[in-house]
Amino acid sequence: MGDYRKLWSDLGMDLEKHDQLCAVLPGLFSDTYLNQENRPDGMNYFNFVFSEVHGLRIQELDEHKKKGGKVIGTFCVFVPDEVIFAANAIAVGLCAGSQFWVEDGEKVLPRNLCPLIKAFMGAKLSGTCPYFESCDMVIGETTCDGKKKAWEILDEYVPVHVMDLPQMKREKDYKMWMDEIKIFISKMEELTGNKVTVESLKEGIKIANAKRRALKRLSDLRKHKPSPISGLDVLLISQIAFNDDPIRFTEKLNELCDELDERVKNSSTSDKKRILITGTPMAIPNWKLHSIIESLNADVVVEETCTGTRYFENEVSEEGDTIEDLIKNLADRYLNINCACFTPNHGRTDDIIRYSKEYDADGVIDCNLSFCHTYAIEHNEVEKALRENNIPNIHIETDYSTEDSGQIKTRVEAFLEMI
Ligand code: BJ8
């Protein structure tokens, strides 16, 4: 990585503490990623993006800001990027996946809270995340109780706009979500000084749909036996999807898929078990579960998570002549996401069963972050449905520390032997 100290210091970051983070990440990345055998050449781009994750991309954000552009941070796949693109702003994902930030988060949050929330709060408080420091505004949502209340604290450090996400999917909830998107559009227009027009919103929809299509193409390739790419590599790609330039990302991902198309033509057989992961999102650099599973005789072939299918399934219709038409299209696509914050949420269970069949999974690992009550409770329904369909499964609850890695490995090993 080049020398970005001036850039980081201009952003007001804590350079000394940030050095500590920079000292551990490359080692973790190379141990997890670069030791894999037979990786596709197309992964070189994503390796490069990761190596420059606090460098080149931050410089791009800086250049955009110097030209008067805005940067918007988000924490949930319900926040429509299309609107951010239409206002000529850049969207960055701020969900944090490292234990490094947890301690700072615990200074203002209870310890018995989801690590994802503690980590993003710690990232902000410690001044060690250049994405956070580049943001002109962050967008929260009323999903789980932990996030909902965390916005109140975060608002003391950075402007927060909260989207009120309904918790059910009735007709009136669709109307309410459309209203929320309308308010979000006004907020973005006010912040950026750019009007969101039918043309710009359609352009935003096109960009987001193209990215979804590329991610879906990659996902479909994993249906081949054996999958032409490791679950670890796909996880890295989806994590990068939240922060990279969307047009460049789509282009590079399609190039990788072209390479994988060739790979599947010449593939051999494999006796590795095929695993579906479902549950809470895995924010960068949380590679813990994938790396445990793939260190054993198994491949992760699909993730029913927000760093998986929930992020890219279903496109937004580009049809319509008015902003209202397009807002309706956005609401239709987004309220189709099946997050455990909704009640009921049978759609998620149906998705898990459908994906298990489509990807020919030998078993399912339902994994949620500690203290994520909605996903932990929903395990009951997920487990029942999997049992009825004779699909072996286990439930894992974990955080970002490595303390339980040995124990998880033993459980996964036993699970793989059993299936
Ligand atoms: S659509 S999964 S990204 S809310 S922060 S709910 S892990 S306790 S992230 Fe999420 Fe949107 Fe739903 Fe997806 Fe649990 Fe932690 Fe809450 Fe979390």
Automatic annotation (TrEMBL):
Names of required cofactors: [4Fe-4S] cluster
Pfam families documented for this protein: HGD-D
UniProt KW keywords: Iron, Iron-sulfur, Metal-binding
Source superkingdom: Bacteria
Entry coiled-coil feature ranges: none
InterPro entries linked: FldB/FldC_alpha/beta, YjiM-like
Similarity field: Belongs to the FldB/FldC dehydratase alpha/beta subunit family.
PANTHER family associated with the record: 2-HYDROXYGLUTARYL-COA DEHYDRATASE, D-COMPONENT-RELATED, DEHYDRATASE SUBUNIT MJ0007-RELATED
Protein name (Swiss-Prot/TrEMBL): Double-cubane-cluster-containing anaerobic reductase
Organism of provenance: Clostridium tanneri
